[in-house]
Design goal:
With 599 residues, the protein is of the alpha/beta class. The chain is 38% helix and 18% strand. It folds into 3 domains: 207 residues, 3-Layer(aba) Sandwich (Rossmann fold), CATH 3.40.50.300; 219 residues, no CATH class; 59 residues, no CATH class. The longest helix is centred in the last third of the chain and has 25 residues.
């Protein structure tokens, strides 16, 4: 195998592709130190791939190495790396399997995955030591996804000539789960019980953060639009609980309210999808003709359900990208280069995947770790021109607002928007919530009932701008200023929030129309219409509530063998008021709640 592996293609020719300032600085630092291991932390969208391949190109040209091996998280990224390398004159084989021994002649190396390395670490060790090799560990934190992966990476590449580790954001780990080839320093943290502890944080040799990338116009500025709403669910004791996403109180209640909001049967998801679609339409009409959005789901079942909602709300089928779909890579490529408006996915496009036209993200997942948040938001921040901005629609829950506030702090340091006299008077959010994910499944009889949605605020510097009323010091918005979510920095946070709040009512009517006009699902089955639950109430609210009360009366009648008329009479006695035909929305809501307790 050794002689066969030494048949190498001529070194690649240097391309004239200009480097960004940070890439050149990192290359200069590498060449001055010429270390065996080098960790680069660069914000998603900054150009880590270009940096790594430029370094590989130089090392190959100087014969410092004769082979490049790239290890990445997914099969799709193998193709993406191989294509990028090909454009720079480096031939990397993305299809080399563990069943093939030597690296194919005519290539300068190959691209593999962490899972493949874990499958046969000694095979990869033989390939990495047959000739002097540069090992590129893309999103190196994946080597900590399981002890077996980390051990395999260490076994495979401990004796390689050079190793370059890449990540999109700093990461933490436990003391007994060190990722190979990464330097650490002690890091204090706050545990779930409120007690402090000491862990380990990665120590990069070169760091290029979101703040620096924004100042260099390498990434887009991000606007975080938070949506609240009332969630109702039945707990394991059979009790019906209702709570607001943004005012849930305890952490446990907040998690259940969040989980209920993400349930496809409620109204939170279609409302936010409509807001997302509205933003895409605006971008396409104002200079970004290929603008697209990503819906990030927690699991494949939710993703499929969300895809149906996208089709119902927007009138167009989205690209559905699932990890177990053999066509997933082709679908990502088709979406990246096509004209489809929205893609619904689980984790397939959460990190590494390059879709520059994606400028809107709907966060419809329960994931909430800082690393995943940064990687996912990174999918919509890649800048193409100075006029573009990104928008992230997210639940107004404290764990996500904590993460968004961290990114906002970096943005505000670079480009603070105009201040109004009222900015200092707005209350700051309480964001003191530990970031660890709560494990679900502890409530085996838990059941989501319904959830509604309404615009809560635009987050700016940890302050919530609700858009309610027009501050005295703020100039009324003119026709030219009413550019929906204008370029951050041109509109104040309060003005941006005011525009979103105005559109929120329009979206509510749009969702109601979509629900009324779409009586069947994709399988031809009737779709039960769910009522909107709002403070106050319109005629649509009352009509929906009356229909639901009639359905609930039928269920109570069947359960108790009581005539419908008797159930209606008992209901009016328990919740006094006029007949349903003339009752107020508040009375109808109270009667609905009473009926639910009878089931």
């Amino acid at each position: 195998m050794g002689s066969a592996a030494r048949v190498e293609a001529p070194g690649p020719q240097t391309t004239s592709r200009p480097l960004r300032a940070w890439q050149q600085q990192a290359l200069t630092q590498y060449e001055e130190d010429f270390p065996k291991d080098f960790l680069v932390t660069a914000t998603p969208g900054a150009g880590k791939t270009t940096f790594a391949l430029t370094l590989a190109q130089r090392l190959l040209a100087r014969r410092e190495v004769a082979r490049v091996v790239v290890v990445c998280p997914t099969d799709h990224l193998r193709l993406q790396w191989a294509d990028a390398a090909d454009r720079m004159g480096i031939v990397l084989d993305p299809g080399l399997t563990n069943a093939v021994g030597p690296v194919r002649a005519g290539t300068q190396g190959y691209v593999t995955t962490y899972a493949q390395v874990a499958g046969k670490p000694m095979l990869h060790a033989a390939r990495a030591t047959a000739v002097k090799s540069l090992i590129v560990l893309d999103e190196v934190h994946h080597a900590g996804d399981g002890l077996s992966w980390g051990e395999a990476v260490e076994e495979a590449f401990s004796f390689a000539a050079r190793r370059l580790c890449l990540t999109g954001t700093p990461f933490r780990t436990k003391a007994d789960e060190r990722i190979p080839f990464v330097r650490y320093e002690e890091d204090t943290f706050l545990g779930d019980d409120g007690a402090g502890g000491v862990g380990l944080a990665s120590k990069a040799d070169y760091t290029y953060g979101y703040k620096e990338a924004l100042a260099d116009a390498v990434v887009r500025p991000v606007v975080f639009a938070a949506y609240t709403g009332t969630s109702r669910w039945r707990n394991s004791a059979g009790e019906v609980v209702a709570a607001s996403l943004s005012e849930a109180g305890t952490r446990s209640v907040e998690m259940q309210a969040w989980r209920t909001a993400l349930d496809p049967k409620g109204q939170w998801v279609p409302h936010v999808i409509a807001a997302m679609d509205d933003r895409i339409t605006h971008l396409r009409e104002t200079g970004v003709p290929d603008a697209a959005g990503l819906v990030l789901a927690s699991d494949q079942d939710d993703a499929r359900a969300y895809a149906k909602i996208v089709r119902r709300v927007t009138g167009k089928a989205p690209e559905l990208i699932l990890s177990d779909d053999p066509k997933a890579s082709k679908k990502i490529e088709r979406f990246a280069t096509g004209s489809a408006r929205i893609a619904v996915c689980v984790r397939m496009v959460s990190e590494g995947v390059d879709i520059p036209r994606a400028a809107v993200l709907a966060w419809m997942t329960s994931y909430r770790t800082p690393l995943f948040f940064a990687q996912a938001v990174g999918r919509v921040v890649r800048a193409r021109n100075p006029q573009e901005s990104a928008t992230v629609f997210l639940p107004a829950v404290r764990p996500l607002l904590t993460l968004a506030a961290s990114l906002e702090e970096q943005r505000n340091h670079v480009m603070p928007p105009p201040k109004t006299a009222q900015d200092d008077d707005l209350a700051a959010l309480d964001l003191d919530v530990p970031p660890r994910e709560e494990r679900e499944g502890a409530l085996p009889q838990w059941e989501a009932l319904e959830a509604d949605a309404r615009f809560a605020h635009v987050l700016h510097g940890g302050t919530a701008h609700t858009g309610e009323g027009t501050p005295a010091a703020m100039t009324p918005l003119g026709a030219e200023e009413e550019e929906f979510l204008g370029i951050p920095g041109l509109l104040t946070p309060a003005q941006t929030a005011e525009l979103l709040a105005k559109r929120d009512e329009e979206l509510r009517l749009r969702i109601a129309h979509a629900r009324h006009s779409d009586d069947e699902d994709d399988d031809g089955h009737l779709v039960e219409e769910l009522p909107e639950v709002e403070s106050g109430g319109s005629w649509r609210d009352a009509a929906e509530l009356r229909r639901e009360i009639n359905r609930l009366v039928s269920r109570v009648s069947a359960k108790t063998s009581t005539p419908h008329a008797v159930v209606h009479t008992q209901l009016r006695q328990t919740v006094p008021g006029p007949p349903s035909a003339s009752a107020s929305v508040d009375v109808l809501r109270a009667r609905r709640e009473r009926l639910r307790t009878m089931l």
